Amino acid sequence: MIEWQGFVLMVLGIFLSAIATTVNKKLLGKNVPANLIGVVNMICGGLLLLVASGLFMPPTIESWLDWPRGLLWPLIITTLFNVVIQFGNIHALKHADASLVAPISAAQPMVVLIPAMLILGEVPSATGYIGLFLIAFGTYLLAIGEQVYEEKGKPWVAPRWLAWTGEKARYFAPVQMLFRNKGVKIAFVVACSGAVAINVDKLVVLRSSSLFSAGLKFFMCGLIMLPTCLRSREYTQVSKADLPMLLVNPFIFAIYLGLFESSLYFGFASYIGALKRTQTIVVLLLAYFFLGEVKAATRWRPAVVMVLGAILLGF
Length: 315
Fold this sequence. Notes:
With 315 residues, this protein is mainly alpha-helical. It is built from 14 helices and two strands. Strand 1 and strand 2 form a beta hairpin. Helix 1 (4-29) packs antiparallel against helix 11.
């Protein structure tokens, strides 16, 4: 189960994460390079978390190098996984529309069960299994409920063997495209990487502190991604008008990461990772009220399914 402290931290983190996502969407809409946004968020956000860790939550590190109890080993693993996740999310969207890429993330709450058992020895309860399934199912329905596009501006056409399902064929689109579309395949790798990373994240938190863990991990991710931005001179594509928004977002990013990592103290990693998927509901609300996306009002049914799943994770 997830203790009430974990729920509070996750709810606050989910709201801040949704705000950061909305800001990122606005920056992308202004043609700010995606890699640059990620590097600024991770390096600046990571530094803020490291400073906060030193001031308020200094890490207690028994050992850096001892195998297998040392901090360095899970830290390296989760950093590499997060590089795959960050770059993968960007490149998946380059090769396929979001209507195909987004539903693949619904697999993560279920995939995370195996590494959670092997790495942390966490075995969900019966209600936990049901909750994980409902969150995964709700995420899938929410993401795939609209028109599906194989490429930007090119509607996906169902194969003949799916034609009998009519409009509902779109729900099978990501699975049908898994071995055909590069973007969908990358998204699946990202989902599996996230399922492993969340468990290794918890190991790093338990061996140091939540703020130190998040700060060092994402600062290292940003440094790894930095040469790509410097070689392509992406920083020259940012206008002075967009610079304040680009520099403010890492503060939101840092607070969200600190809350999320801290919630790992109070529940199973598989539950925390699944609960994070409910961020989509908050994004829909922000899209409806602040971005004028009126279609968001019609997507409440999958949201209800996800909320029910989240409630079951508390038992």
